[in-house]
Design a protein that fits this description.
With 248 residues, this protein is an alpha/beta fold. It has helices spanning 29-38, 51-54, 60-66, 83-92, 101-105, 108-117, 150-160, 181-190, 204-211, 223-226, 232-247; strands spanning 2-10, 13-18, 21-27, 43-48, 74-77, 96-99, 122-131, 134-139, 144-149, 164-169, 195-198, 218-221. Helix 8 links the parallel strand 10 and strand 11. Pathway: Amino-acid biosynthesis; L-histidine biosynthesis; L-histidine from 5-phospho-alpha-D-ribose 1-diphosphate: step 5/9.
Amino acid sequence: MRIIARLDVKNEFVIKGIHLEGLRKVGDPNHLAKAYYDAAIDEIIFIDAVASLYNRNNLFSIIREASKEVFVPITIGGGIRTIGDIDEALDSGADKVAINTEAVRNPKFIEEAAKRYGSQCIVASIQAKRIATGWEAYVETGREKTGLSVLDWAVCLQNLGAGEILLTSVDKEGTRSGFDMPLIEAVNDLVKIPVVASGGYGHPKHCNDLLKRTEPSGLCFASVLHYKTTSVGELRKTIDQARSKCEI
């Protein structure tokens, strides 16, 4: 299972909030990325948290600097809306792009991008919120409803050619209250492509509880790393121990 650091960036600072709101500055993105790389993180995801305000991603210069010292896969997301954006992201040093809003507006964009760059390069980002009938997909940093069922949308994105799903629980994001296990289990068991779960980790018990039910391809960590309440090494040990318990 991949251990992934998630860096949400606003105006050249890594920020963190709860439910993707109430954002606070926590550090320099390049300094944090290098620290996590030195600690043996498996991957890093950079998300432009305010891309919707500018109608484009503004992280390309940050990615260029990061790729000089960070040699694990880098994903960039937020405001990726054209083939030109993907070209610039990859030219800047990113290995993958995460796409959410434009996929909802124009699903064929996922298909076009996957054919041009390969499915392994295209990450379908889903921001999920609980509703009475399950979960609804949101865009614009969890602010705008789409009317799409998360489960139906995940299957559609897979069929369009996405190589991976970045599944963010808006309800759990930043709370450290545990993963949205029913959501992760439902999506992970439904699709055949890798699922990376984001939002909610705060205690080793949360990994134990999740892995009893399902095992996603990767887990994203943000506030627990940014605020140094745990380390990459401790997370790896936690996940390994949780997996061992599930195998007994």
